[in-house]
Structures are given as structure tokens and as C-alpha cells.
UniProtKB/TrEMBL annotation:
PROSITE patterns noted in UniProt: MOSC
SUPFAM superfamilies linked: PK beta-barrel domain-like (SSF50800)
UniProt xrefs under Gene3D superfamilies: PK beta-barrel domain-like
Organism: Ornithinibacillus massiliensis
InterPro entries in UniProt: Benzoxazolinone_Detox_Enz (IPR052353), MoCF_Sase_C (IPR005302), Pyrv_Knase-like_insert_dom_sf (IPR011037), Tri_helical_YiiM-like (IPR005163)
Source taxon at top rank: Bacteria
Position of the signal peptide: none
Protein name: MOSC domain-containing protein
Length: 192
């Protein structure tokens, strides 16, 4: 949760950045969640609008702080060249208790969820060295209809729209860990 920036090149493997340990491997990390990205612009919102003092880049536990990207402009399956590596958006981040604890803001997970400022995860398609400041060059965007914001909306706001849930579950590049609760939702509604 406490990340430090580095200017040195770092090896990015299928399971994440070398030297970046993940404590909770059940809910974080792994091949579908190798890198967690969070927009730098969100920090102004948390400081100025939500009055969370001391929250700054790295405050959400991200491995990658990004500029000029957000949940409305990033889609499931977006594939980027990042240094020597090739990475692909796999799912939004499900807000958890760790940022709330770190920033001593009990309801921060719920605020993250309600605002849609969740960030997102990447899987690694091609391993390689990456470095701070490297541009993320978009190579492919196969699912423009499934922005991170749209996925969050289906998961958290439009829970009764089963048609949308069915469509999202069919997105083959969406991580299974994001599909599972939607499948349970569909099964639960179908049996009642």
C-alpha cells in the first residue's frame, strides 16, 4: 500500500513489477492484476473536494500513476506499449479498506466506489523493462463500449439491469474476478 517512486528501470513480469510485494494475494496482484493504475488528477479531487489531507500520488497503492487517462477514457482490453512491455486493461479496481485505513477516512472505500474514481488493473502480455515517465502508447482498443466507468456503473449502480450484466460478462477480455460477482447476480436473479 505504501509505494515509492523510482527512476531506475524495473522488470515487469506477468505477475507484476520486480520488488513490488503484494501482501493480500487473494484480492490483489496475480496475472490479471499485475499493475494497478490510478489517475494523478484524482488526487486534487480527494484533497480539495473531499478534504482528505496528505493524500498524494501513491496514496491509493498504485504501481502506476497516470496522466491524461481516467475511468472514462480507458476501456477493458486497451493494450499499451509501456517501455519494453505490452500491457492490457483487465478490470476496474474494487475499492477496499486499505486506503481508508491509510488515510484515516472510514468511508473512503464507499466514496471511491460512489465517485467511480477506482483506477484499473493491467495484465502483462509481454514482459520487459519499464521506467517512470515512459509514455503509454495505445496499440489496440477492442472494447470501446466497456470503459472502466461503464464497468463500474454496471457493478455498483445498475445492479438490476441484468441485460447490461449479461453483456459485460460476455466481454472476453474482462478478468474473471470481475465477472464472478456478475455471474452470481445473474444466477441469483434467474432462480428467484
Amino acid at each position: 500500500m505504501f509505494k515509492e517512486s523510482t527512476e531506475m528501470p524495473v522488470w515487469l513480469s506477468k505477475s507484476g513489477l520486480y520488488g513490488d510485494e503484494v501482501a493480500d494475494k487473494k484480492n490483489h496482484g496475480g496475472q490479471e492484476k499485475a499493475i494497478f493504475a490510478y489517475p494523478v488528477s484524482h488526487y486534487d479531487y480527494w484533497q480539495d473536494e473531499q478534504h482528505i489531507e496528505g493524500i498524494h500520488i501513491g496514496g491509493m497503492g498504485e504501481n502506476l500513476a497516470v496522466a491524461d487517462m481516467d475511468e472514462y477514457t480507458v476501456c477493458i482490453g486497451d493494450t499499451y506499449q509501456f517501455g519494453e512491455a505490452v500491457i492490457q486493461v483487465s478490470q476496474p479496481r474494487k475499492p477496499c479498506w486499505k486506503p481508508a485505513r491509510r488515510h484515516q477516512t472510514m468511508d473512503l472505500a464507499m466514496r471511491i466506489q460512489k465517485t467511480g474514481r477506482t483506477g484499473w488493473y493491467f495484465r502483462v502480455l509481454q514482459e520487459g523493462f519499464v521506467k517512470a515517465g515512459a509514455e503509454l502508447a495505445l496499440l489496440e482498443r477492442p472494447h470501446i463500449e466497456w470503459s472502466i466507468a461503464n464497468c463500474n456503473e454496471v457493478m455498483y449502480e445498475k445492479k438490476n439491469d441484468l441485460e447490461l450484466a449479461k453483456k459485460l460478462v460476455k466481454c472476453h477480455l474482462l478478468a474473471d474476478s470481475w465477472k464472478q460477482p456478475l455471474v452470481k447476480r445473474l444466477e441469483g436473479k434467474a432462480s428467484s
